[in-house]
């Protein structure tokens, strides 16, 4: 785990770490719904919101804005460890998943199927459902493992065929909290359908670091920056050269291979550069040396270790506080012992409504979230026979003291229920 000195430095770089500007002091365990925002992002947003100039003009301010955008595109490639291709900024991560899936489906060879999995968020499932239907293809969903909350490369291999034209992969689930083996799944698809377009939903995974597209042969990777320390209002994607070469919406007579339309928000690009700079800084503080990519990788490793320690304490207990697994009638999505977990625990108590747990935690100053068996989470919860569960999602700026406060509150909630 991070020592107290470094953790204090980390927390000082974020806005509203321990106090909500609307409700007062609180512990923020709702990071999967949207992570905390870097102070540098707040400052950068204000700076660029006030600049009246646009790109493409013959003046110094306009040229400076273009340089900011170009630098940000390089930073995205650095963060993803991707070469070539195009960096695309859109309305949101969900919107970009729909766009990339649409263009893959309309540009792929005729016939065949679209392949996804039951663990996926409706952003990719919805895009595949829509565009498989629009292009006259079947949509096949690889079943995930209910016990582990994951989908495996072996499961994909059992369903991929040479007729697979487009495939989607979820890197990490915002409901189970489990990461899927992206390089292995992509390799399983390529082994049977080498020409398939592979699109990845990396929205939940991004804040935990360790995105490396040099190790995964995919055509698209999408994230939502507000879930990785930036702000709302934009999404970021990388699209391979072969995906970029397909037809997509663009202005007649405009630049070839252009994904983006209209005047861009320079502040969106600039704030993602702030995110990459933060990972670079953190990597240097945990011993990363050499090139920026090496420091970013070091940051990702350190983040994983810190978050793993926090979720282990949450599940198994710490000091004299029992963990979640010790509470009567507890169930933990994906199992209590799961090495694929990334900073997230979804659980329920048999004798306490999940809504009441979230309410009681709010009363104790701890922000969490209920997940219901609806269009967002039903594919995960319905097979478990659960109408809902409580999601506790951590990030690397959270502390062991905050976990202790959560466990103390949960002990009281369980005791009040008579369980």
From TrEMBL:
Query: What's the source species for this entry?
Result: Citreimonas salinaria
Protein name (record): Selenocysteine lyase/Cysteine desulfurase
Which keywords does the record carry? Lyase, Pyridoxal phosphate
Is-annotated flag, keyword Amino-acid biosynthesis? Answer: no
Pfam families with a match to the protein in the record? Aminotran_5
Per UniProt, residues of the Aminotransferase class V domain are 27-406
> Please, which domain of life does this record's source organism belong to?
Bacteria
GO MF entries: lyase activity
Q: Which InterPro entries match?
A: Aminotrans_V_dom, PyrdxlP-dep_Trfase, PyrdxlP-dep_Trfase_major, PyrdxlP-dep_Trfase_small
**Mind telling me which residue stretches traverse the membrane in this protein?**
none
